[in-house]
Amino acid sequence: MATNLKAIMFCEFHPIAGPKIAYQVPEDFISKESFDCVAVYIITKPELQSMLITVNAFGYKFIGCPMCITNAKYSRNALLFNVCFVLDDAADVHCYKPVVKKLAAYLTSLELENGFLSQEDSKERIPGILTTILHGLNAERKCTIPINEATTIFLNLALTKGDCPKVLDHDVPIFLWENSVINAAQWDITTQQILPFIDGFRHIQKIAAQADVDLNLVRICIQNMVHFQVVTLISIFQYSNVYIPTPKINDLFQDEQLQGECVNYVARKFRRPPQFCDVFQLYCGLSAGATVRDLCSRYNPSFLRIDERCLIQFGLMKGFVRRLHKFPVLLMPESSMQPSQIKRLARWLNGDHNYDEICTETGMSHQNLDEIIENHPHITVIWK
């Protein structure tokens, strides 16, 4: 369980006053005198910029990522800032580190796009943003902060290692962060090699093959990215898949901000966004016994300007929908009269392995597996 944040500070280099705390919540949590003692580790020399730094002082841990944006428009040709999280000195800060890094990347992107940190009218919003982050992470381990029409800040405290799901070869990684926030240079060489192949559709085994990286290394890299909540895992998309809505669909119905995010995500490229009522109708149209192909035949998502693949992706990521998997079971496994093809598949036909896993491990298509199972009198399928 994460230890609660005590405070958050936005620090900057002032052209006259030097390093200073511009804003902090709660107010006056850290005195100017105390800050001056650690300022060299908050607003740092170039060698330490863009790096995570943890400082123990005054009974607290300060976690920050000092940033520098170089441009002639700034005093001294650079904007230096740092957002620091403050926790008790005995706290386990592991889960906060990726959040600090992500927040620094968000603020850098906002400054580069529209001068969010350097223009006084937008800079005045920082205390409110810090307050939302502090309360959100302490109460729910996450927070969502809309900044403008194009940018919303999403922060989540990372899972502990024990909470991370096992990465399987048929799992499909999909980014939780916006592409503008992901800096490939911050990752190890192997992760950099597989990043271009993570698209929400390729599964782990395919990523390994196409990136020409050892399968076990890909699993480790994706596990690390899941831990830091850069990606999450969903199932392989096929038009023959069956999905159903979950009770969380009510969150989408009630949350206008989430509706806007959803509409933008599922919109077909180069076309104006769809109507939310059409998007919601498609989600509600998912049901047991109806495939995605059936849904498309009934509603024609393309006409509604909806990308049905992105519709399913977003639903899985947010928990609005879940996949119903098929688990085949051979009812007479000991029979010596089984065809050789069934004997080769027998280890997978005990009800513990779904179609995605079987097809990924054997190289067989879903259609071929369906034909084998439908033509065998002693194989049944469990949906769950």
TrEMBL record:
Biological process per Gene Ontology, one example term: cellular response to amino acid starvation
Regions that span the bilayer: none
Molecular function in Gene Ontology: GTPase activator activity
InterPro entries assigned: NPR2-like
One cellular component term from this protein's GO annotations in UniProt: vacuolar membrane
Pfam families xref list: NPR2 (PF06218)
Protein family membership: Belongs to the NPR2 family.
Name listed for the protein in its UniProt record: Nitrogen permease regulator 2 isoform X2
Organism whose genome encodes this protein: Paramuricea clavata (Red gorgonian)
